[in-house]
Amino acid sequence: MRIGPDAAVHLEGASALIVGTVDADGVPHANRAWSALVSEDRASLRLVLDGGDTVGLANLEATGRIAVTGASVRTLRSVQVKGRARGPARPPTALEHAMRERHTELFLTDVEQTDNVPRAVLDRFVPVDFVVVDVEVEELYDQSPGPEAGRELAPEPP
Questions:
Q1: Using an 8 Å Cβ cutoff, are 48 and 128 in contact?
Q2: Residue 96: which residues within 8 A CB-CB, separation 6 or more?
Q3: Which residues of 144-157 are buried (b: 16+ CB within 10 A; e: fewer)?
Q4: pTM here?
Q5: Which residues, at least 6 apart from 87, have a Cβ–Cβ distance to it below 8 Å?
Q6: In this predicted model, what pLDDT tens digit does every residue of 71-123 receive, in sequence order?
Q7: Which of 40, 45, 26 is nearest to 83 (CA)?
């Protein structure tokens, strides 16, 4: 499965990113991701996650299963990727830190402007520790509100 350019727009940049994982018994857990980058071959996604999310990280170690929904704060258009983590979580590089800072800034600015939430309040939601996980894309869905929500997106050609 490959992520197309339209779907990539809703995963990278200013998007709100929600991550779902499951433990070995299938119990779900959700948290926020703070940055996403679609790989050059569009078959994987690099995520910057909350390093303090011990439940989510334990779930990834146990099952590797992950779902990521990226939504535009301004339009609510969204896509969801389902896949499997490739390898353990690792500390971010300096470039990944910079990418996360940029994406967080864009996301928080959109929330501040659309929802009139004071920036000082929003800044309290940003974690202090981060980890990076690479995800192999297995499924891709349109999750935008409306009658097409949940529709599987056709794979992009290589």
A1: no
A2: 35, 46, 48, 132
A3: beeeeeeeebeebe
A4: 0.91
A5: 134
A6: 999 999 999 999 999 989 999 999 999 999 999 999 999 999 999 999 999 99
A7: 45
Alpha-carbon separation of residue 22 from 41, 62, 79, 155 (angstroms): 27, 9, 19, 25
Tokens of 103: 């994406």
What residue segments make up the domains of the chain, in order of their start? 5-148
Give every CB contact of residue 26 below 8 A, 6+ residues apart in sequence.
none
CATH topology of domain 5-148: Pnp Oxidase; Chain A (2.30.110)
* Nearest CA among 78, 85, 80 for reference residue 56: 85
Q: What is the C-alpha separation between 141 and 20, in angstroms, rounded?
A: 14
